[in-house]
Amino acid sequence: MEHDRDEPRLPTPRGPLSRGVEAYLRGGGRLPRREEVDRAEVYGDDLQLALYLCYELHYRGFAGVAPELEWDPDLLRTRAALEHRFLSALRTDARVHDHLDEALEGLLVEPVHGTGVTHFLCAEGELWQVREYAALRSLYHLKEADPHAWVLPRLWGRAKAAMAAVEFDEWGGGRADRVHARLYADLMTDLGLDSAYGRYLDAATAEAVVTVNLMSLFGLHRALRGALVGHFAAVEITSSPGSRRLAEAMRRTGAGPAAEHFYDEHVEADAVHEQVVRHDVIGGLLEREPHLAPDVAFGIDATEFVEDRFGTRLLTDWRASRSSLCAPLAQEATHIS
User: pTM for the complete prediction?
Assistant: First the structure.
């Protein structure tokens, strides 16, 4: 679909914080005050959607929203208040490992009897659950690798070269038809989903939005470059086995060839990326800035924390035979009947 390049529409607000930010983006209204931010549930729909609205101005923006608002001082102050609340909570709730080696070792261990979302979808997931998962993950995969690109100007030498090499693969190695975001749009088409960028923001739960906001939080702050590298490591190290299970889920549910291909591609590519990230990106970063090791560990822990919350929400709903979306999915015109 060609319309996936268009600016997305603004979503429906979910409370006073997101309502205030959205009104401001539309050209009127009062931005939330700091005390209102401090009272909101930190991982809840309202705060996370408000933060997502602020972050999205640094990606493709929104239809009808002036591009100049990306650097609006009042809006940046609001974003800072939202970020402070989010980051403070993560530093309290997500930190598990005191040492980076322990955090990395935990990522490398695949449980014999896994119980996560990819295990569920591989073994027993139904097509409607595969479609929900794809719609929720589209908030990231339609801009795959973009949040991590912000770390490139903040790296040097071996770490920079290795990170750029991995990102180059994610962007198709110079071929537009192999850009991973393009491959994901094809996956969505196979599944009867609308591949327009940002299309399923209204359907996304807070737990799904948080996973994307985490990347933007780490990416937009030079002081958090170590955490972004940790996030990237967590994603790449766990991607290959998870993608293998998802590829099998696509085959078992008859999702379609493009859906299968997206995850098959990640099985092979991310197995290589995992080695490059561990040895060259993290290794190169810590050669020059060894004091960032705790930040890399924090990035890994925070990634696991938000992903666990996301997975718990999905499996709780699915095992109760109910949708995990905030809005129902429409059926697009595809091969799926």
Answer: 0.94
